[in-house]
Write a structure and sequence with these properties.
The structure is a homotetramer of 208-residue chains.
Chain A: H1 28-33, H2 46-53, E1 58-68, E2 74-83, E3 89-92, E4 94-97, H3 104-116, E5 132-137, E6 145-146, E7 152-160, E8 171-177, H4 182-189, H5 195-205
Parallel strand pairs in A: 1-7, 5-6
Antiparallel strand pairs in A: 1-2, 1-4, 2-3, 2-8, 5-7
Protein name (chains A, B, C, D): NUDIX hydrolase family protein
Keywords (chains A, B, C, D): Hydrolase
GO molecular function (chains A, B, C, D): hydrolase activity
Chain lengths: 208, 208, 208, 208
């Protein structure tokens, strides 16, 4: 079962091997909403991403979406229900790799928009110091994070969502639960590959 | 010249020595907007605060107000122009001590409301890990932070301001400046007691 | 049951009310090893500390002692067995208030030396950004941290111990346990007032 | 001029394309001291690293070496003098990419050993939350960090060095300077690509 959002190559894959100069005029908007050509800049073909996954760690951002109250306290934690590649349903967080020439902030905004839609109104943090760095390995047991496809280094952020969520693409639903709810434990146990541990750390960091 | 907002005792000082049980029904609203009796719970008389200042470090929160763009980047940094106790004008940040039985979040919200008004719409962070801890001493030169009145331990936070600022009380004006503006250096040099260094660290932490 | 190390006034209490100028020649050594007069500078009499505890939050440092391996990973977490004021045995961390005119680093080093002895060789962090800030209130249930004596704001640090521990004063023993040991859960459940939650957050922050 | 340590392919490059199972028995020692085959596991051929550099961001660790005093304060900051690929001398920090199947801690230890030798005795942090994340782009001006070869995402750590430094390989010398020395500014101005800004942020984070 895949444990992170995957690159889903399509006919419009376009950028592998192109000159770096092509990025000179790329704007955040191009990454976050695409360039009208189907994939954001920096997207790779199935062949290229597969080869690289066997050669080096892949940088990811991983976002724990939360609802906060007036004083900034976490009132609810969000998780996604998604259709996995094998057709099963999985519970996960918002996660995706950082693309070539994309900033971390663009990657965070793009992945949130991809999963929660364009009117989620995420409140990105003023600083990019992650609350934790999760190291996923393709070898089970090497760390508490496991991803059969790759070695991924995920910078993890808590991002308050101020707007409305309209699940997109493979995302079927977004479910919210209070940090002190019994349901939280159930949700965390449904997250594969260590993503539940990331939520626990997010709540520890948030003081809850 | 005072370098931190001071407790300004008035006739309605009321809480020194009272039983702790009195706090059982205190709400965040009581701290942030007062209880209709002039001062928030936990306020001390001039005599009590003065005595304590000579005996132990006083916990403070210090807020660097910022305006952020859609991606969370700091677009502008705010500073306050205030009337100091000696009648002079000083440039400072938003700062105040944490009151007895007040949470850090309440102290942050209360001090922002006190200086920027009720519709500033501050976006408090999901986690309370400060970007730095500033240690103010009454002895010049002991650290880079100096406060002639006291030994203060200030937990420092960057807080985006999403609403409108209506300066209150001793605050005359809020001035905003871009992080890369030449004016920033002028502003920082006008901040006494090391508050300018706090802004520099805030921007370093924010990646700018 | 007391949940934090307490000030234990003795006949040599000396500093309440003295002029601030007396601190001009105080050295870190004076705080950490005392001045030969029984208590470090900044110590308060029973009457003064009691009065202040009813008036304002008291700044504390709280240290999670750890043993680390060559790569800096936490191999063991330490906890203290102490004689409480009522004669019972309690399990706790290293904690103490920051004294007047004492730096955070001095407070950390002093409290470690007080509990673990002079040859513990603590490795203080290069930066003083705490992994969490624990807010203890005298009202049960207001936060997950409870201290019947006071409102305390504790800056929490993980500090590797490289030397030998010789428990001092009220400290009977230091016990070490691996983060993945079943015994850890037992130990954490024996810590009152929320100190167990601080260990959990320390381990979450440390990636374990 | 190259601004980060580079992969220097040699005849013993061996791992591109091999099965992941080969990593099952790799130890930290293999990464840090090599396997006797010239390069650590995860090393790539010149062709593979070059192709990947044009396709995705490369994860790096970047270390600011420091000397600390008994209280953990930064007494000196280190920088390296190195022979660049074009034969010129450059001043830089300790930096290197994270290899496939290598943990962040192994990458930090390996790169320190490579530059400072086997008896530098680095004190790795108990937690891996970086003080900043530096985003290097091959397009000048996109961020304050620039690397003509690649888009690199560098997790930045301050690491105290407790032992003796024996510069290795391309590293000619390690020079130490006090944070308040005038020489620091000169050194920082000699660091290309934004590495000087990383030192500034490290010192801001360390409270100096």
């Amino acid at each position: 079962m895949p444990v992170m959002n995957d690159e889903v190559p399509d006919d419009s894959d376009f950028d592998a091997g192109r000159a770096r100069g092509e990025f000179d005029h790329v704007t955040p908007e191009d990454f976050i909403r695409g360039t009208g050509r189907g994939n954001p800049p920096g997207w790779l073909s199935a062949r290229d991403i597969e080869r690289t996954r066997g050669q080096m760690p892949i940088p990811y951002v991983e976002i724990v979406p939360v609802r906060t109250d007036d004083l900034g306290r976490v009132a609810q934690v969000g998780s996604l229900l998604r259709v996995a590649d094998d057709g099963s349903i999985e519970r996960t967080l918002i996660t995706g790799r950082v693309l070539f020439h994309e900033t971390l902030r663009e990657a965070i905004a793009r992945n949130i928009a991809k999963d929660l839609g364009e009117i989620a109104l995420p409140v990105l943090p003023a600083g990019l110091q992650p609350f934790t760095v999760a190291e996923f390995f393709p070898t089970p047991g090497l760390s508490e994070y496991y991803d059969p496809r790759q070695h991924a280094i995920a910078l993890c952020y808590v991002v308050p969502i101020a707007g409305d969520c309209k699940p997109q693409d493979e995302t079927l639903d977004v479910e919210w639960v209070a940090p002190d709810s019994d349901v939280l434990e159930v949700f965390l146990s449904q997250m594969a590959g260590g993503h539940g541990a990331i939520v626990r750390r997010a709540l520890a960091w948030a003081g809850q």
